[in-house]
Amino acid sequence: MNGNSRMLQHLAKAPSEINLVSTMLDPAQQVFLLTSAGSQSGTTTSAVTLANQLAKASMGQVLLIDASLSATSITQQSDLRRAPGLLELLENQTSEQLAASVLSYPDLPFHLLPLGQRTAQSEQLIQEKTSQLLSLLKRHFRFIVIDADAVYASADTLIFSSLVDGVILVIGAEETRWEVAQAAALRLTQNGATLLGSVFNRRKYYMPKWLYDQL
């Protein structure tokens, strides 16, 4: 098993941890963004899990895009810092660049588009180019899941949020204050995002988990 695919499989959680998959199987919805109110809320884990479950629940191909500058992003953890990816594809939206940037692993049900190398020309996403790229990717993939930085950490997150079909806000249980989560949700909706729901991550069970599942 490839080391990168092993890492991604390790991040993916059990299907019961993601309760939004059935909601997303709407034919009209195709591109989803995961972000958070603050750092280290588990957005990457939730994005990998969602991509994994969408790939298993649908007939079409699924693409996971790493749009995060975090030191714990998929690109960083997989040591793909020098690999072409999202940023190169934004600048050169051709079938050749698409083939060179999108990665696939035989033991994973989804494809991966790493961040790529940020240059002076790609310091910030340009909304028109980003929209054009998403239109290109939608012709090749049934579902697209974008792992983004926290709402207040990067302007790129807000650009993506206004272009996707739905946004999922990841909330760290017993870490993210409700006022902060509420403010992040408001910022997203004011930016034109469609907020589908939230993932309550790292929750602690004060009674057996099997009993929670029966509630």
From TrEMBL:
Xref: CDD domains: BY-kinase (cd05387)
Keywords recorded for this protein, A-Z: ATP-binding, Nucleotide-binding
GO molecular function annotation: protein tyrosine kinase activity
GO cellular component, one term: plasma membrane
Highest taxon in the source lineage: Bacteria
Keyword Chaperone in record: no
InterPro entries noted in UniProt: Bact_polysacc_biosynth/exp, P-loop_NTPase, Wzc-like_C
Name of this chain's protein: Cobalamin biosynthesis protein CobQ
Organism: Proteobacteria bacterium 228
